[in-house]
Prior knowledge:
The complex is a heterodimer.
Chain A: E1 9-13, E2 18-23, E3 31-38, E4 45-50, E5 55-56, E6 61-64, E7 70-75, E8 84-92, E9 104-109
Parallel strand pairs in A: 1-9
Antiparallel strand pairs in A: 2-7, 3-4, 3-8, 5-6, 6-7, 8-9
Chain B: E1 4-7, E2 10-13, E3 19-25, E4 31-37, E5 43-50, E6 53-57, E7 64-70, E8 73-78, E9 87-94, E10 103-104, E11 108-112
Parallel strand pairs in B: 2-11
Antiparallel strand pairs in B: 1-3, 3-8, 4-5, 4-9, 5-6, 7-8, 9-10, 9-11
Amino acid sequence: xxxxxxxxxxxxxxxxxxxxxxxxxxxxxxxxxxxxxxxxxxxxxxxxxxxxxxxxxxxxxxxxxxxxxxxxxxxxxxxxxxxxxxxxxxxxxxxxxxxxxxxxxxxxxx
Amino acid sequence: xxxxxxxxxxxxxxxxxxxxxxxxxxxxxxxxxxxxxxxxxxxxxxxxxxxxxxxxxxxxxxxxxxxxxxxxxxxxxxxxxxxxxxxxxxxxxxxxxxxxxxxxxxxxxxxxx
Lengths: 110, 113
């Protein structure tokens, strides 16, 4: 599975959109981009995933560049409860395990 | 109802002891996993089972032995505990192998003293 690069940490103001970048320049054609988050002292939680089209669900939006080498997770209106570590993971259809990197530690401030 | 439940939530034990962590999922999923999160917060997969069969063993010491009595349960037994085994252990499940919308339990914090 392709490697991902994320900023170590970022701050966001409550009520504003949080844009979390992820680089995955070695992604191959059949690999998906997945996002998970881990709130302190809890297990990881699935957020969203996509292949090449932009995706939106009740939690977030995922924007994937046309060349698929990078993506952005958007939390439209960040709340204090969105403070967590966010993981961007690239996973191939033939794979059988999620590999977590260091993630981005997001702190939502009042 | 909790989808993926682990017991116990906290476990403190002495070096050399043998302990087990239990995991149950009520989602009807075929695939279950054990992950370890160490003090540096990296999450690493240890084992994966699909329909009670072992499909992933990530070079985990033999002291760690998973057991899946049925596809709703995946227990982790650890022999001769060492200080370095101290970590948070997460159980997870997904509908099938290769399907990565996984559901995680709340974790078991193991402290070896």
